[in-house]
Write a structure and sequence with these properties.
single chain, about 100 residues, alpha+beta
């Protein structure tokens, strides 16, 4: 198990039920879903009875054309704002210090 750590703890399902335990598994790090399924299978856990609470599942997939265009437009806008900021800053420095600001 590289890149993640699994920690289990057990508690009684209810105070009156002495036959069943609820098992909580904490995941530290990032675990491939296939490893998680294999881990549960090794313990004969039915996937229908297992739940994920407050977790994040992530994967990589190709960006859509719309996402790429949106990013391109955002970058262009950011580049324009940065260029304008540089021009305005340069003008303020020239106004304050004269042409010697470039030296």
């Amino acid at each position: 198990m590289e890149g993640y750590e699994l920690n289990e703890r057990r508690s009684w399902l209810t105070k009156d039920n002495w036959a069943d335990m609820r098992v909580y598994m904490g995941i530290q790090g990032s675990i491939p879903l296939s490893d998680l399924v294999a881990y549960l299978a090794e313990r004969d856990v039915s996937l229908a009875n297992a739940t994920v609470n407050f977790g994040t599942v992530s994967w990589v997939e190709p960006a859509t054309g719309e996402e790429i265009e949106s990013r391109r437009a955002a970058k262009e806008k950011s580049d324009q704002r940065h260029a304008q900021w540089e021009r305005e800053t340069w003008e303020r420095l020239r106004a304050k210090y004269g042409d010697g600001a470039a030296e």
